[in-house]
Amino acid sequence: MNDKVPGLLDGIRVVEMSHIMAAPTGGMMLADMGADVIKVERLPQGDDIRRSAPMVDGESAPFTMMNRNKRGVALDMRQAGGRYALRRLVLGGDVFIENYRKGAMEHYGLGEAEMRAANPKLVYCSVSGFGQTGPYAGRGGFDLITQGMSGLMSITGEGEGRPPVKVGAPVTDITAGILAALGICGALVRRGVTGRGQYLDTSLLEAGITHTYWQTAIYRASGEVTRALGSAHPLMAPYQAFPTKDGWINLGAANQSTWEKFVVALGAPELGADPRFNANAGRLANRGALTYELTRRFATATTAAWLDRLEAAGVPAGPVYDVAQMAADPQVQARGMIAEVSTAMGTPVSVIGHAVKYSDNPATIRRGAPRLGEHTREVLEEYGFSGAEIDALVASGAAA
To answer: What Rg do the C-alpha atoms of the chain give, in angstroms?
Structure first.
């Protein structure tokens, strides 16, 4: 990547007052695209994720993952000086992102209406558990809670009678951050037309619901409530994972032409002629019998052998990786999805790369995550604070 080429958001300044994961993910994506993201942390301890293991040179690997490319400012919001400094930062920025409980920003004198009245160009984004309106607006939200309430846990797991299972990744946190970044980019484009910013409000609950497109469509059209199907799909078969001689393989014989190619590659043309399986409706109705027939056949060879055979036949299939295997895959490496940053002591730490490739303004990973308050003085100077003002804020404990 060429750091001399400006990013898509070069020249955009983002103030991110956030913690844990959702808003930091959104800020990270904007920073990858070239925005100057200033992460503001509350003194004395900063973001709780700073204390999450594993540690590398005393720095949290999870914190590094979500806060690379940002500059760090540390302020004590209990003190008037800290609140005053943050207000100046927000009013001098293009975007403000926060993910505290409803009413917290008003408590600090940073409410949306007040900030946008003082700076009409400001794009102000709130990320919360349940949104800023509705009967649950005052509740705190966590990924586990919103996975359950969004319906995700009812469609994840092994099936009827088994305990509810959450998606292994904190999918509502991450998706809420992605939605925030998407909304902010849209608001910035609109601001280029109108000259005015606007208020954005998204939540973990809505992020979880967003992942239920298939299941909600089925329910709204038919009244049928989709339940957990393991790795299977509610509308097509075979479309699931099967055990092989040495692991697992995912098969995506999702349409009729692929099914017909698949049974030939499998060496089981009799399955294609079986009236139970010769059309998708029959395969769905007889999913149990189909799964049995395919499972016993896949068990006869290794995952690699099956992948070679299915790829040659043009049948979509892939291995089931753990995270270490994913990181070592040549396609993952070729796409730059595993990158490295350095700790303050120079030790490399792996981070996930930016997932969108831009032809003219590539995303870059330019620096590791900031130490607590690492750029406080630098940023305040850029905002017009004098050396004496900064010294006073530090001496009082309002900044660090």
So the answer is: 25
Q: What is the DSSP string of 205-240?
A: HHHHHHTTHHHHHHHHHH-PPP---TT--SS-SSEE
Please tell us whether the domain made up of 239-243+248-319 is placed in CATH 3.30.1540.10: yes
Tell me the torsion sign for CA atoms 399, 138, 179, 226.
positive
Residues near 343 by beta carbon (within 8 Å), at least 6 away in sequence:
56, 57, 59, 64, 349, 368
What tokens appear for 352 in the block?
A: 């996930």
The pTM assigned to this predicted structure is 0.95
* pLDDT above 90: residue 238: yes
Neighbours of 84 (CB within 10 A): 15
Cα(315)–Cα(256) distance, integer angstroms = 11
Crossing angle of helices 256-266/303-313, nearest 10°?
A: 130
- Angle 387-396/80-91 helices, nearest 10 degrees? 140
13, 94 Cβ separation under 8 angstroms: yes
Indicate the domain borders of the chain.
Answer: 13-211+330-396, 239-243+248-319
The C-alpha atoms of residue 189 and residue 169 are separated, in whole angstroms, by 31
Q: What residue type is 131 in one-letter code?
A: G
**Starting at the edge strand that comes first in sequence, how are the strands of the sheet with 36-42 ordered?**
70-75, 36-42, 13-17, 95-98, 123-128, 199-203
Q: Is the dihedral of CA 98, 101, 106, 111 positive or negative?
A: positive
The number of beta carbons lying within 10 Å of the beta carbon of residue 350 is: 14
The span from the CA of 249 to the CA of 253, in Å, is 12
What length is written for the chain?
400
Tokens for 189, please give them: 């484009």
pLDDT in tens, 314-367: 999 999 999 999 999 999 999 999 999 999 999 999 999 999 999 999 999 999
Give the residue among 226, 230, 245 at the shortest CA–CA distance from 291.
Answer: 230
For the domain 13-211+330-396, what is the CATH code?
Answer: 3.40.50.10540
Residues 310 and 307: their CA atoms lie apart, in Å, by 5
CA distance 399 to 387: 13
Which DSSP category does 48 fall into?
A: G
Name the residues annotated as catalytic.
173
Taking residues 125-152, what's their average pLDDT? 97
Pairwise CA distance, residues 341 & 61, whole Å: 11
